[in-house]
Design a protein that fits this description.
Length: 294
């Protein structure tokens, strides 16, 4: 059994994926480890497959799984996990750049604290700010309402009020300290293989987006905690393959799945707790939001 399996889904992001891999390779030269990298390509047509085959020639730790069609993010990751042999599994986006992370330090957290089910490091964007998707509370009706009408942003730095109105991104927490969160991002999500086996991997109802928060929810249902660990960080070149990509068709498909994921999560976990009319208003609000331009 390997110590660590890293699962990366590739879809028409040849140069970004190559950058991700090159940095990973250098990172493991600095911090040697028994690892494997499994790339699942979702039917790329931009030269990604040829690039990956070239990289594989001189990298025995790199495995390729080539799909003839786009399986979606969750299903592709599940396929990679099925082939994995690691005790620990890292879900890593192809646009996530690791420059300096000692994975043994991260794994030591799991071994020292058995109640930890998954963790994320500090995920930063190109502008140096934290990726808000990496430090989240679960999207309850109240916290979602506060976020989308702007109360979270308005009271972001106001003591006590940021706890009341900022639960969507847990704005009352100190981003420099280690603490529990509800959910991180699939851009960097480390967990145990045995936990993935228990929950069955990513939920197949999600095509893209939402599957990471769904997984976090199910991990916490098992009684585990999700940890935010900012002592290490990763750069996330966000929107390289989705919402802000130049290709209009890709943007539209991404937008659809982005908001569809909100509906799926709400239906699974909150709809039964609310009145029919409330649910219809929630779905309407999501539809209206999806039609607004980014």
């Amino acid at each position: 059994m390997k110590f660590l399996s890293i699962i990366i889904v590739s879809f028409n992001t040849r140069l970004i994926t190559l950058k991700c891999l090159r940095h990973l390779k250098n990172n493991f030269k600095k911090y040697p480890l028994d690892y494997e990298i499994i790339i699942v390509d979702n039917g790329s047509i931009d030269g990604s497959i040829q690039m990956l085959k070239e990289e594989q020639k001189n990298w025995t730790n790199l495995q390729l799984i080539l799909s003839k069609k786009n399986l979606g993010y969750g299903k592709a990751n599940n396929l990679g996990v099925q082939k994995s042999k690691g005790q620990y599994v890292l879900y890593l986006n192809s646009d996530a750049i690791i420059n300096d992370i000692d994975f043994r330090d991260l794994v030591n957290i799991f071994e020292a604290q058995p109640q930890i089910g998954a963790l994320t490091v500090k995920v930063v964007l190109k502008n140096g700010e934290i990726d808000p998707a990496s430090h989240r509370g679960f999207p309850t009706l109240w916290w979602s309402f506060c976020y989308f009408i702007g109360l979270e942003k308005l009271f972001y730095r106001t003591f006590l009020l940021n706890k009341l109105f900022g639960g969507y991104h847990l704005t009352n927490r100190n981003l420099s300290t280690v603490h529990e969160i509800d959910a991180g991002t699939g851009a960097f999500f480390l967990t145990k293989k045995e936990i993935i086996d228990r929950i069955g991997g990513f939920d197949k109802d999600y095509f893209a987006y939402g599957e990471d928060i769904e997984m976090a929810y199910r991990i916490k249902e098992l009684g585990y905690k999700i940890l935010y660990y900012p002592l290490w960080q990763v750069l996330h070149l966000k929107y390289s393959s989705g919402l802000k990509k130049n290709d209009k068709k890709t943007r539209e498909m991404t937008r659809f799945h982005f908001y569809q994921a909100m509906k799926i999560f709400y239906t699974k976990h909150y709809a039964k707790k609310n009145f029919w009319l409330v649910n219809q208003l929630v779905y309407l609000a999501i539809d209206l939001k999806s039609n607004l331009r980014f």
